[in-house]
Amino acid sequence: MPEPGEELRKARLDKLQRLRERGIDPYPPHYRRTHSNQEAVALFLEAEARLGAGARSREVSVAGRIAAMRTMGKASFLDLKDGSGRLQLHLRQDLLGQAYALRDELDLGDFLGARGVLFRTKTEEITVEAQEITLLAKALLPPPEKWHGLKDVETRYRQRYLDLMTNLEIRPVFQARSRIIAAIRRFLDGRGFLEVDTPVLVPVPAGAMARPFLTHHHALDRALYLRIATELYLKRLIVGGFDRVYEIGRVFRNEGIDADHNPEFTLLESYEAYADYQEVMAMVEEMVATVAREATGSDKVNFHGHEIDLTPPWRRVSMREELLGRTGIDLEAYQDTAALVAAAREHGVDVAAREARGRVIDKLISALVEPHLIQPTFLVDYPVEISPLAKAKADDPHYVERFEAFVGGMEIANAFTELNDPLVQRQRFLEQEALRKEFGDEEFDRLDEDFLTALEYGMPPTGGLGIGVERLVMLLTGQRTIRDVVLFPQLRSK
Predict the structure, then answer these.
(1) Is 171-314+375-484 assigned to CATH 3.30.930.10?
(2) How far is Cα 114 from Cα 260, in angstroms, rounded to an integer?
(3) pLDDT one-digit tens code per residue, 406-442
(4) Where are the domains of the chain?
(5) Which CATH superfamily is domain 4-142 in?
(6) CA–CA separation, 440 and 211 (whole Å)
(7) Per-residue confidence at 3, pLDDT binned at 50, 70, 90?
(8) Are 402 and 385 in contact (CB under 8 A)?
């Protein structure tokens, strides 16, 4: 016995066959649409303001997907949806003649074009009185739940086209994402930054502590990796003479999937010669507030029930002091890694018995400090163990000039005064390589000889920045998971 969905598809295939037998192309290559639905409504309102009650607009051609159908004898009403909104069509047999028979072959989800004038019905709805209709695409599968909304989260992510088709609250999130990225570009362009592109396929996956994806280039017969960051190539450009550069692009990290992480995500990285992390800090708070105003109309956002004020200046606090205040753990009192591991476990943090000290510190911050940083906060001055690319503080070489920005209980930015001493940078890389061998862990940074060669030609003092675009979008649109701001998130196999 066929499944209900198979029967519906068979009925639509039968209609498709009948259309072709009548000489109707169910998938024509082009349709001349004169107005979007929203533009057509605006045209009618203009005519109505000029002519008064009973006004009719000039002729328009509109197109979209059929969202609802109601038949009353020799007339039908159809709801047509396009990217701008919904518009009602009125189909009358006396106006369409033989073409009205096409109504019998239409289904929800089909794309239809209609030419006619606009008027207001007795129920006050603005409507196109169709004088000509054209089938533009026959849908062989019905829309989910007859347009009442797609609720299954797994299906929404796997078949985002159905989510966009049926859940009206989803499109504004992705429209906001586009505005946010455009606002970031305007902000940086206005400050004299040059947007650039750097390689996605790289011989050394360096610039972050992350496990890479490996691939193989057959023509070159060599292993290559998907980039985990853009940092080292952007700093090469600073060496080459560009003073301010940035890139907004995809990076790839072979890591777990959760509310804040997706294996591929969009990263903004910027580098400014002759700046340090204090200047970058000031730029970040100004940029986020500016982007919020441009994209949402306000520099205050509601995120998970918290009213967050993004107006500068943001709170600044030492990472060590914040950890001490939240947990009672003073990093200076736990120089021994085993003792730090024991302290972390006492606080319920999941750490292995044998783990690098820097990794333990990172887990302590993530588990015990980060969730409490709701209002915008800069944690500054991180231990050198977890910051191999940052310049050490002049008054304490155990810490570096680095900050992370937290809002809404999640990290949105990471920045350094960049390490530009090639000898110290080589030593830091070697220490990272030794840690990888000791712990058998991919998530340590890697030595990049060409980058070290570039540094030996000289790089000026530089302030660098990384912002996770998806997390910023989550914050400004109030979304709870990264999957809700990525159109096609990675998912486990069915």
Answers:
(1) yes
(2) 45
(3) 999 999 999 999 999 999 999 999 999 898 888 877 7
(4) 4-142, 171-314+375-484
(5) Nucleic acid-binding proteins (2.40.50.140)
(6) 12
(7) low
(8) no
Amino acid at 412: I
What is the pLDDT at residue 147?
A: 44
Nearest C-alpha neighbor of 197 from the set 233, 165, 171: 233
Of the candidates 294, 481, 303, 462, which has an alpha carbon nearest to the alpha carbon of residue 389? 462
pLDDT of residue 155: 84
Contact 435, 445 (CB under 8 A): no
pTM of the model: 0.92
**Could you tell me the CA-to-CA distances from 349 to 212, 257, 312, 352, 368 in Å, in that order?**
25, 19, 33, 10, 8
Helix axes 449-456, 231-240, angle to 10 degrees: 30
Give the Cα separation of 466 and 326 in Å (integer): 26
Q: How confident is the model at residue 150 (pLDDT cuts 50, 70, 90)?
A: low
Are 105 and 18 in contact, with CB atoms under 8 Å apart? yes
How far is residue 361's CA from residue 370's CA, in Å, rounded to a whole number? 12
Give the count of beta carbons closer than 10 Å to the beta carbon of residue 354.
10
Question: DSSP letters of 310-329?
Answer: -PSPPEEEEHHHHHHHHHS-
215 close to 225: Cβ distance less than 8 angstroms: yes
In sign, the C-alpha dihedral spanning 158, 163, 164, 166 is positive
